[in-house]
Amino acid sequence: MRVSFVISAALAIAAIAWIAFGQLGDWASEPERKKAPAKISGEKQLTLVRALTQSAQERRTALLINGQTEAIRTVDLKAELDGAIDLLPVEKGAHVANGDVIAHIAARERLAGLAEAQAIMQQRRIEYEAAVKLADRGYRAETSLAEARAAFEAAKAGVELAQVKVDNLTIEAPFAGVLEERMVERGAYLKAGDEVARIVELDPILFIAQVGEQNVGKLSVGDPGTARLIGHPRVEGKIRFIAATADAQTRTFRVELEVPNPEFSIPVGATAEIALPLGAVAAHKISPAILTLDDAGRVGVNTLDAERRVRFRPVTIIEDEADGVWVAGLPETVTLVTVGQEFVIEGEEVRIQPEEAATAQAASEARNAETSQ
Q1: How far apart are CA 131 and CA 246, in angstroms?
Q2: Which of 165, 206, 207, 341 has its CA 20 to 30 A from that of 129?
């Protein structure tokens, strides 16, 4: 019994010692397990962008609008007498000069009527001269002299009327142009008022634009303008007419640009791009690559303020050239973000690499690369 008691006591002491040792071991290792988290040091890196500071230039703006060409004059020639066509010397599409014969109506009895009227006038003239002599000698009353004078004047009027009828047998071009249409053929019988031909004047020619009310007040008669047809070079002209009233449906005003067309190379009814002057504005020439859109869908550019923060500014494109676009709406002097604008947001502070420095660095690297080769 004593042995078992000793064994039990020994086991109890060993268990207590083991438990105590384990707790002490845990306490001793606690500081190592509960080390403070590593401290992350350093500041957020600012986005690097390229920037270019530039000043505005005075630029004459132009309103670009689609329009069409129109003849300056179009006239439909009509017969003034009844009769058959006996002469058509000009073919359709031919160029004609002022006074060229377009058609001729057979004379028939008109020449005979003229000859008769001339004979009657000659007779009345002789009678009137005789009456004057008799009246001077006192052998003729004043009333008889007046009757002879009236008969003579009536005979002269008859000759003039007969001559007009003969003249109207010939239908002439009222101005230089093109014979656009010919409605009759030789031998056709016409009545007074029937259409014979259409003459179109093409030099000068008109370019017609419909201008909105917000811009029409900026235009003046006599201002220069340009126009261009598809496949044709740009031509220059002057504004000859600005409508005083707007179209009731489109609320736009008709503007006519007159352009010389001596070779008749510009056709009527062709679609054209017309540029009309609107005055001078302060504008910046930029690369179209730096244009961007804001959340509202406005076209603009990212600029930098004095604190190097990004500011979006909307712009208006006023002219497009091969090496850039001219825009209005920016301050007189502005710093533009030229590279990296797609990686920044409104109000963000950035690091700046001037465009001039970047260009110089690129040139230096290119020279070094050539030297190493």
Answers
A1: 67
A2: 165
